């Protein structure tokens, strides 16, 4: 469905004194705005793959009237974040962006001909006095006034701010769809509408799991698409059905297994329709159902009340989270297993920053090098010499997590959907086996995906947690995927559920604090789930978290890469403590 994505507003700010000064700076200032627009247009895309759109003020802003006209234009043009740019001195409080609901930044050009840096400092001071945090961007090297280039360090901050700001703006006004209730007492399954509303500007939509059953029984789904989906599933998934490891007395008949396949495909169609709607349903006389719930993310309770008597959601969750299905390559959904909305929102953060599919996994086991050698006889070496964390969940992981996509050098990657080829889709499907669900866990049956993630991918694991008396906190760990020799993996895999997908994660260790060693990362992780994204995006996550007043309680990002609003520096010289104090002082954006 067509999306009306928020735009980036660019505000060229100028010295308002006419009679020589302003006139001499008009072209230079406007060209600065245009150079940033070009940078954004060439480097940033919306989740649907289209280039990010920018809106530049109709004129340079030299005073409050022009600032107001710019604000009016931005309101009409659906601007979701603003960047002010200037090469010179301007009038601070008269020219700043005063909208309290959108992220904002200022780039003060580092040049000696005019004091852009002086305006940057003055304007940021006004922002800080007024309680309107803004990101300050100032290049390390002096440039000539008419130099149209954007230095690399400035580009990095401009892009980091824009990615975070767009994520904030895209989430605002959307919904999290909670299907079912609390899964097995998991805290993240206790969907918190106040958190979603106050920090993210999102609604919470609650739908009982019986709605899925109602739509299956009454046929409220696109029957033509179901036929297409079943044919695709038969060709690409049922042909790769794995051995049934259930005890003989529990095994389903072939007839029942085939019915389970049909059931889980219908579940997938219905879960998608619940999220975003489906105009076909309107033609069938189901106008309300056709609208969906405007959901940018969602989750399914599954265990236990559903899975004790109906097929589980593993297939549906895996396909929804993947970058393809029977309709071809498409934008992945963000869909949480066990309706863990905190992990679902963590996945959403990652996806909005990277436009890639996200891995949902249990943070299940720390394998020390001693334990690996003890159970397998193999002494770990290379990246595994200090052990690894085994990430594994019940077959609900995105198939992009196989690592079967490749860059130009053949290295495993996870790409935005518009870069994925049909050949790579085939590789992902061929790397995946669909095992009948363990009926001791999930009595209603279903199918779990199983694969081993390829080694060598840079990844970032993150997780939101809610803490009584504190609020939300975010933890981040950058690292890499790794694999064992086949015979070693076989031994380790058989110690848990061998029908589920495995990703072995080696975080980057700093030798201190929460990252003293790999055991420490596992030991201090705040919940049983993690959201894993391709790429080292910890710095982007820190910037995003600061834009919505969520402190980061654990990360392994170098200090020089941390980019937060200027006001954070006033809350102390220790980065972590200042972050906590600033977030507490400013509080949620939408309270």
Folded structure, characterized:
By secondary structure, the protein is of the alpha/beta class. Helices cover 36% and strands 19% of the residues. The strands form 6 sheets. Strands 12-13-20-19-18-21 form a 6-stranded antiparallel beta barrel, surrounded by 4 helices. Strands 2-1-3-4-5 form a 5-stranded parallel sheet, with helices on both faces. Strand 6, helix 6 (193-200) and strand 7 (203-207) form a beta-alpha-beta unit. The chain is globular. The mean pLDDT is 96.
Helix/strand-derived category reads alpha/beta
Could you tell me the radius of gyration in angstroms?
Answer: 25 Å
The percent range for helix content is 25-40%
Alpha plus pi helix count: 19
* N- and C-termini, Cα separation: 30 Å
Biggest beta-sheet profile: 6 strands, antiparallel, barrel
What's the average pLDDT?
A: 96
Number of beta-strand segments: 22
- Principal-axes geometry comes out as globular
Main sheet: which strands, in order across? 12-13-20-19-18-21
Runs in which pLDDT lies below 50 for 5 or more consecutive residues are: none
Short description, anyone?
The protein is α/β, with parallel strands linked by helices. It is built from 19 helices and 22 strands. The strands form six sheets. It has a six-stranded antiparallel β-barrel, surrounded by four helices.
Secondary-structure map with pairings?
Elements: E1 7-12, H1 21-43, E2 54-56, H2 64-76, E3 79-86, H3 92-95, E4 104-108, H4 116-130, E5 135-137, H5 152-171, E6 175-179, H6 193-200, E7 203-207, H7 210-218, H8 223-236, H9 254-276, H10 279-283, H11 287-291, E8 295-300, H12 314-321, E9 324-325, E10 328-329, E11 335-337, H13 341-354, E12 359-367, H14 369-376, E13 388-392, E14 405-406, E15 412-413, H15 422-430, E16 433-436, E17 447-450, E18 458-467, E19 471-482, H16 486-493, E20 502-507, H17 518-524, E21 529-534, H18 538-547, E22 552-554, H19 575-586
Helix pairs in contact: 1-5, 5-18, 7-9, 8-9, 9-12
